[in-house]
Amino acid sequence: MGSNNSLVPVFIPSLASVLLHAEDAKGSPLSEDEVLRVRDAAVCMMMDADDVRKMNESRGYADLDPEGCWHDFQMLRRELGRLPELPAGPRFKTLDNEDPAYRETIRQAHETLGEFRRLLIQSKRLGAMAMIKTLLKDGKHSKHMWLCNARESKNGFEGELFEVPGELTAFKVGDCLDIRTEDIVDWMVNDDGVLFGGYSIRYQRERMPFEARCV
């Protein structure tokens, strides 16, 4: 048996399927208040975190995050082609830093920084979007954040914040940050829809509901 400190809520059936069913029953998109009411009324049980990871691996996806279910549900609706699309707002997802699969994405990002440097030169010429990801800390709060307009710097790379969660009060949108090479946790270049790098993005997509990834 796991420790009570490692117990996490699990929706049975999944929150994604419950919300999709509620929207189908309504016949129109759920409002944010309706999404939260459905979430709060859904059947939920507590499971050990290790058992949850095993369950996610066995069924091929992780459920929507209940704390960010509005944003996650809108992303799912878009993947499924449901109209009309509704504003999802920013999503600051908390990743499982101890998951070996997630740690592997950081290793891959560091091993391919040479490729990123080469792509940075091309991105300037082609106008492709280049970004870096790092862990920002503000007191007791910390979040992994993407920075846009990435470029090399003396210490490693620098980029600009384009969204900031409210708890990181020491930062603001537009801040240009110089990030040491060892503090880079991911990088990406998006060249007209073609993604290079973005290992944590691929990690998250693999854990989306199966029906969303197969659209």
Which terms summarize this structure?
2 domains, two-stranded antiparallel sheet, 8 helices, 8 strands, alpha+beta, 26% strand, six-stranded antiparallel sheet, disordered N terminus, 215 residues
Q: Low-confidence parts lasting 5 or more residues at pLDDT below 50? A: 1-5, 209-215
Encode the helix/strand succession as letters: EHHEHHHHEEEEEEHH
Question: In what range is the share of β-strand residues?
Answer: 25-35%
Order of adjacent strands in the largest pleated sheet: 6-5-4-3-7-8
Mean pLDDT across residues: 84
User: Helical amount among residues, as a percent range?
Assistant: 25-40%
Task: Give the distance, in angstroms, between the N- and C-terminal Cα atoms.
Answer: 38 Å
Number of domains: 2
The assembly state of the depicted protein chains is single chain
Largest pleated sheet: 6 strands, antiparallel
Structural class: alpha+beta
Gyration radius over CA? 19 Å
Shape: globular
The count of β-strands is 8
Question: How many H/I helices?
Answer: 8
Brief write-up:
The protein is α+β, with helices and mostly antiparallel strands. The protein has helices at residues 15-26, 32-41, 49-59, 69-79, 100-111, 113-126, 199-206, 210-213, and strands at residues 7-11, 44-48, 129-138, 141-152, 156-161, 176-180, 184-191, 194-197. Strand 7 and strand 8 form a beta hairpin.
Task: Summarize the structure in words.
The chain is of the alpha+beta class and 215 residues long. It folds into two domains: 4-91, no CATH class; 100-204, no CATH class. The protein has helices at residues 15-26, 32-41, 49-59, 69-79, 100-111, 113-126, 199-206, 210-213; strands spanning 7-11, 44-48, 129-138, 141-152, 156-161, 176-180, 184-191, 194-197. The strands form two sheets. Strands 6-5-4-3-7-8 form a six-stranded antiparallel β-sheet. Strands 1-2 form a two-stranded antiparallel ribbon. The longest helix is centred in the middle third of the chain and has 14 residues, at 113-126. The protein starts with 6 loop residues before the first strand and ends with a helix.
